Amino acid sequence: MSTTTDRTSTPTVARTQVPRTRQAPATSPPVRRRQRRKWLDRLGWYELVGVASASTTRQVAGLFLGTSASPTSPAGVFIGKEQFTGWPFFHDVFQAYRDKVISSPNVLVVGDIGAGKSSFIKTWAVLRQLTLGRRVVVIDKKRQQVGTSVGGAPIAAGEYTPLARALGVAPIRFVLGTGSAGCRINVLDPAIAGTKDTGGASQLLLLRAVLGEALGREVRPMEGKALRVAHKAAVSTARQQGRVATIVDVVAHLDDPTPTSLEFVPSRVSLQMLAEWGQEAAAELERMISEDLAGLIDGPTSPEVSLTGGLTVFDISALPDDGPAVPIVMAIVNSWLRAVLDNQHSTVPTVFVAEEGWHLVDGTFAKVTRRNQKIARGEALMNVTALQHVSDVPAGSPAIATIQESETVVLFRQGKEEDAARCVEWFNLPRSCKDTLLDLPQGTALVKIGTKKPVIVTHVRSAWETAITDTDEAMHSVATVALHAQGQGS
Ligand SMILES: Nc1ncnc2c1ncn2[C@@H]1O[C@H](COP(=O)(O)OP(=O)(O)OP(=O)(O)O)[C@@H](O)[C@H]1O
Ligand SMILES: [Mg+2]
After folding, report:
1. What is the pLDDT of residue 382?
2. Of 102, 226, 460, 478, which sits most exposed with the smallest number of CB within 10 A?
3. How close is the Cα of 258 to the center of ligand 1, in Å?
């Protein structure tokens, strides 16, 4: 910093404006004034000169009164208010990619329970994207009270149900159990695997992942071969019968290969050899399809399952947390989305939201989804994932690479020091951000976009958005229960 002074003043005191001559105050005793000398004046002796004075950036900032620049370009999707300046904050992944601000369209949202992650995703990544004519596909894992029946009983469904209903969209609901009201998807449906040459490979990749889950171990080479042959034989036989094959046909061909199977193997391979290779696989697949996945993938795809609208919500909140059902449905939906994007005539920017999408990057199905994620940029696909605690991700997990690949990172409040410290480390944040993360109020986040400096943004929702993104219905309930069940007590 530098200020100015003249050479008649004390050189150690810096002043911004110094008069050339000074009048003594009326009350002061008369002072002898030094005369200006003309030749010194001509040489500029009495001109103001700059004197350096050390200061800090924070102090100097006080001199720049009332000026600040917008923290973002207005060409984007509204998020909320930047905390310090109050400016509106916009960010659009597709626009930022075009502007070369980011090179990955993937988005990660992190925050403690109830910090505001879902409300943010439902507005910024879903509702506001739909207004731009984009395609949004949601895998809805979290069960929530979404209303009450006529008799006052709570009705539970996926937390995106109120949002979907408000837009006139019926979520696609998966429920375990044959004869349940839930939907079914056929792993071998051409709509899922795509009709291009890669379609067969996608189906086989999915089948292998399902088999790996059923066996609880890696698929052995000969089992893999038997599965490949059974898949081809099942598709070919079903085509001759004028229908679409299902996984039940694959199990049947694995268990009891037919002469059709021999068309897909060298002549030295016999039906007996094929049956031996596929025996255990057939038994385990059959068990899993009829027990762990009952009613989910054992028949033709239900007619209401379609990805043609702007918004598709897959409600998997009724599926058990443990077991293969959730990862299998997630992997199928992921493959399906990939096929839809592959076959579209013009590229519609698409948002894929899987809030608790860790099955997508870890476990048996990671291979399926990582393969699909590679197409993200080529197909204008923005993957949005949410996570409560970064310390939940095990060391060495492939999920870490996926997390760090995200170039739009939205960090809500973290309750634990170790989580806040890990966020600072993983996302290359200034160290002071650790305390900021621990103190953020509900609905406010630290937003880091590409290599830009992080900014604190308060997420702003309209009254309508607030009504359909609220997740507190159960917590606000004032319903009561009698101390004793009716008929008990006196
Ligand atoms: N921007 C906001 N302003 C004010 N309140 C908010 C805001 N965002 C969220 N909330 C409040 O916080 C509650 C919880 O929000 P939300 O469901 O988005 O949290 P979450 O982080 O997804 O929680 P969980 O980890 O349990 O899924 C909402 O019901 C709402 O009342
Ligand atoms: Mg949530």
Report:
1. 92
2. 478
3. 56
